[in-house]
Amino acid sequence: MFQSVIIPVKNGEKYLPACFDSVLAQVDAPYFEISVFDDGSVDETSKIISCYQTIAEEKGIKFVASYEAISGGVGYAKNKAVRQSSGKFLCFLDADDVMLPDRIKKQYEKAKEIERNGSLAFVGSSFVRLPKDATERYTRWACNLTEDELYTQIYTAFGPTLIAPTWFLSRSVYNQVFGFNEEIKNGFPEDLDFFYKALSLPIKLCRLQQPLVIYRYHTECATFSVNENTIWDLRIKQIEKDVLPKWAKVTIWNAGKQGKRLYKSLSPINQTKVIAFCDVDEKKIQQKFYELYDSVQRKVTARIPIISYKNAQPPAIIAVKLDMTNGEMEENLKEKNWKESFDYIHFS
């Protein structure tokens, strides 16, 4: 039984040496191989890969590398790196990130424990952000989720509750979701799509509290190419699949732009379940109703009450961003004594 470190890369000359150095510096790690796919790089990436392949093999580490001149996109590159590997567990590492010295050891131990207990392993970890002050809200959220929140906060704009550069998972998970979407080369959230599909399997999500990855933030990140509307649509699709079939009625917590966008994004049958918008803003509450006007039929097709959050009834979709109101929204929600995932879900 061994692990495959999966490294897809495109034009990675700036950060790739540090990435490889971190893999080769693993301490007390069980046997692992390195699998690299170069997705059409035109810089010095291929030379760096060749150099580190020699270094790795001199250390007795299997190093599998391949290259294609025409880029197939992020999902394609990940699939190529996985499919040429052979480890029981897959340890994903972005070419611009660095793993800390005991990452493989720690995540392997947890993954084995999970599988011994009859589940498929999907393990992540906390991380160190570089630069330190980049994406403070996101980092605070991702590194402080409880075990329950790994499952309940999967619909927020932050994306997967286990951060993709920290993933360490059973190969069986990858096989059963048929890999990453590669139909859309750029601008598609292939990690979120993969994560949602994996949730339908008998997996155990686990985030190790110890930071095991240095997660780099820079303007060339693939994240910047992902279309926000595509992420939104994927999240809507997931709540319509997972949540709304269980609810006969629903309140949308936010009578502003986000709440209305959420309502309009729902299917017609799910729009009929919306019994109210609720808000803290007196100006919005004084409007009393939100009216949806159909320009084709030239008439109002829906008239939904706008009420104070104090009068809101569960279940509800919270369309207010977490950690953005100096704790006010979280306090208002706390006083309702609602249970997350049963009485409400976070969406924004």
Automatic annotation (TrEMBL):
SUPFAM superfamilies: Nucleotide-diphospho-sugar transferases. Pfam families: Glycos_transf_2 (PF00535). This is Glycosyltransferase 2-like domain-containing protein. It comes from the Eukaryota. GO terms for molecular function: hexosyltransferase activity. Residues 4-130 form the Glycosyltransferase 2-like domain. InterPro entries: Glyco_trans_2-like, Nucleotide-diphossugar_trans. It comes from Panagrolaimus davidi.
